[in-house]
């Protein structure tokens, strides 16, 4: 009895040791596989983030010049600069207007693509075309379409009698801002649409059937089934989409360079312009740090208050 | 009664699909078709829906007497290198994160999520400073490094659904047969996750092919310039040569169309699988 107990204990011990060894070697391999990417990102994101903070306390103008410690001078310059605060305001408006337009159009698009029709497979793939071509192509397309001579949009507007002479879409501040928002939305709504569509396809069909049997209208089915089921997808889109949209630089820069008279200077344009046209790298780094903190607070609040309940458990 | 309802529904759906395609595709048709028009027709006051003239002179100018071919070669080199490095880094990490459980794997996964949402503009100044301090300014490697940084985290995320869907029994059976981990990864996981790999390959290529912001400050000489910055330079010239620009836009779009035509379905699946999972 005693001996068998000892044997059993010994066996269990061996088994445990074996499984521990196995799990250790597995762990070791797991870390090894993830390590290259993590080291890469440590070098290209973490280290630069730290050096952004370092640079923000120096007085570097062009690269290789200056470099003495100036304390919080760059921060106080940025925080007292009207240009910075107006850029922040324009970025806020940019994020809000883009997300409203894109969400509405993306929902409509997803609902269309969800229906059965011939060529549906092709449409679901190619709808994303505007998102995958280089921004510079988007810029050439729309400059050409919106041009005052030979541009089809102005031609159509004049021919339909909506305006009497060609409109300069980038002439006024408000016009330029609105035009760039619309073009950026045109570029991004298909991505949102295919993501929403994938979310909708994950909703069990019998939910809709049951609702139809109970006499729910299409609008009610959307409000009580589609929309609530999409909460997790909408949460991710809201968080990541906001950060991505905030980050948009090239569309704005290539259309307007932030003009006319700074009307389209959002935060990314401000940061770029300060660093590489005004040659104030340290000042620009300070602005990046401030903006980073603001975005961090936004992300924390968004996660705290907007995360769907079932996501929190996971 | 039912038939007329169905007819109206089909008609409405058809119109909606048509409108959608018009919004998305028509602008591309417009530049492709205009790029073969003669210069007078391009700037004609009354735009022509179908080209009334046909000429390849803009393409000739673009490829014979502008620096565009150099840009194209640079963009291709940078995009292919970005693609290869992204595939290697992301698929290794994906295997580790999604097929193995180890202490801290959830934490590392979170880090990946944070980095893909991270706004690149905040790294503009410090990355520039870092790359110049190691002497990589005005090299294509600088662009590869930046592009991989922004493509790889999202690529890992895209791979999630593909890696998680492979049954563990397959790996266990192979392990029982004495296959090594490496062999299992190459012989079993790689073929089974090939659609996922294809979708991240395309994502990395497109990320690199379209990148403008970093390329505009990291590259100084015309000989190392990529297409987005090169074309933007042509837009900025005093006298805009629309024929040249339209031809340039067309040629720039072609590789993307080609790749997308081949594996566009996988790409869209990969894009959405991560978001919905």
Q: Would you spell out the secondary-structure blueprint of this structure?
A:
The complex is a heterodimer of chains A (314) and B (277).
Chain A: H1 2-56, H2 73-79, H3 82-114, H4 120-126, H5 129-132, H6 135-146, H7 152-159, H8 173-201, H9 205-213, H10 218-229, H11 231-246, H12 250-256, H13 267-276, H14 281-306, H15 309-313
Chain B: H1 2-34, H2 39-42, H3 57-64, H4 68-99, H5 105-117, H6 124-133, H7 140-164, H8 168-176, H9 181-192, H10 194-210, H11 213-218, H12 227-236, H13 242-276
Annotation keywords:
heterodimer, A: about 325 residues, mainly alpha, MetI-like fold, 2 domains, 15 helices, B: about 280 residues, 13 helices, about 75% helix, about 0% strand
Textual characterization of the structure:
- The complex is a heterodimer of chains A (314) and B (277).
- Chain A is an all-alpha fold.
- Chain A contains 15 helices and no strands.
- Chain A has two domains: 50 residues; 257 residues, MetI-like (MetI-like fold).
- Chain B is mainly alpha-helical and 277 residues long.
- The longest helix of chain B has 35 residues.
- The interface between A and B is large, with 93 and 90 residues.
């Amino acid at each position: 009895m005693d001996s068998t107990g000892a044997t059993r204990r010994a066996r269990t011990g061996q088994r445990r040791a074996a499984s521990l060894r196995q799990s250790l070697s597995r762990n070791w391999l797991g870390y090894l596989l993830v390590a290259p990417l993590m080291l890469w990102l440590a070098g290209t994101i973490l280290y630069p983030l730290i050096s952004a903070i370092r640079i923000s306390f120096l007085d570097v103008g062009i690269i290789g010049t200056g470099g003495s410690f100036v304390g919080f001078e760059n921060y106080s310059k940025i925080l007292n600069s009207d240009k910075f605060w107006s850029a922040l305001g324009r970025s806020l408006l940019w994020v809000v207007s883009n997300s409203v337009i894109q969400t509405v159009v993306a929902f409509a698009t997803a609902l269309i693509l969800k229906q059965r029709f011939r060529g549906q497979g092709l449409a679901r793939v190619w709808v994303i075309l505007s998102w995958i071509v280089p921004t510079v192509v988007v810029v050439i397309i729309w400059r050409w379409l919106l041009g005052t001579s030979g541009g089809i949009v102005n031609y159509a507007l004049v021919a339909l009698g909506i305006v009497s002479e060609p409109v300069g879409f980038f002439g006024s501040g408000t016009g330029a801002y609105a035009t760039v928002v619309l073009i950026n939305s045109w570029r991004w709504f298909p991505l949102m649409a295919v993501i929403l569509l994938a979310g909708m396809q994950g909703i069990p069909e019998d939910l809709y059937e049951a609702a139809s049997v109970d006499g729910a209208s299409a609008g009610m089915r959307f409000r009580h089934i589609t929309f609530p089921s999409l909460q997790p997808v909408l949460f991710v889109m809201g968080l990541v989409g906001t950060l991505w949209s905030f980050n948009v630089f090239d569309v704005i820069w290539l259309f307007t360079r932030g003009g006319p008279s700074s009307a389209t200077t959002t935060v990314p344009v401000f940061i770029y312009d300060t660093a590489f046209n005004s040659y104030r790298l340290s000042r620009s780094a300070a602005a990046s740090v401030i903006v980073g903190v603001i975005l961090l607070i936004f992300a924390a609040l968004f996660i705290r208050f907007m995360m769907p309940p079932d996501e929190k458990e996971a | 009664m039912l038939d007329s309802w169905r007819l109206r529904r089909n008609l409405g759906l058809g119109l909606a699909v048509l409108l959608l395609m018009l919004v998305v595709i028509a602008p591309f048709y417009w530049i492709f078709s205009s790029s073969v028009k003669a210069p007078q027709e391009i700037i004609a006051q009354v735009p022509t829906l179908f080209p009334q003239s046909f000429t390849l002179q803009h393409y000739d100018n673009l490829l014979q007497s502008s620096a565009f071919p150099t840009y194209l070669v640079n963009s291709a080199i940078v995009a292919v290198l970005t693609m290869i490095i992204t595939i290697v880094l992301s698929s290794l990490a994906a295997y580790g994160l999604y097929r193995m459980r180890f202490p801290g794997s959830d934490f590392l996964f979170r880090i990946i999520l944070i980095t893909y949402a991270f706004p690149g503009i905040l790294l503009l100044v410090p990355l520039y400073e870092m790359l110049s301090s190691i002497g990589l300014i005005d090299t294509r490697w600088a662009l590869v490094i930046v592009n991989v940084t922004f493509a790889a985290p999202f690529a890992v995320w895209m791979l999630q659904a593909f890696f998680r869907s492979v049954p563990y029994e397959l790996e266990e059976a192979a392990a029982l047969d004495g296959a090594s981990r490496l062999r299992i990864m190459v012989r079993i996981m790689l073929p089974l996750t090939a659609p996922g790999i294809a979708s991240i390959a395309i994502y990395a290529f497109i990320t690199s092919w379209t990148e403008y912001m970093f390329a505009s400050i990291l590259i100084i000489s015309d000989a190392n310039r990529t297409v987005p910055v090169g074309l933007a330079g042509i837009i900025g010239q005093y006298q805009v040569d629309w024929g040249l620009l339209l031809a340039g836009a067309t040629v720039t779009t072609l590789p993307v169309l080609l790749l997308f035509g081949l594996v566009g379905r996988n790409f869209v699946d990969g894009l959405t699988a991560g978001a919905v999972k």
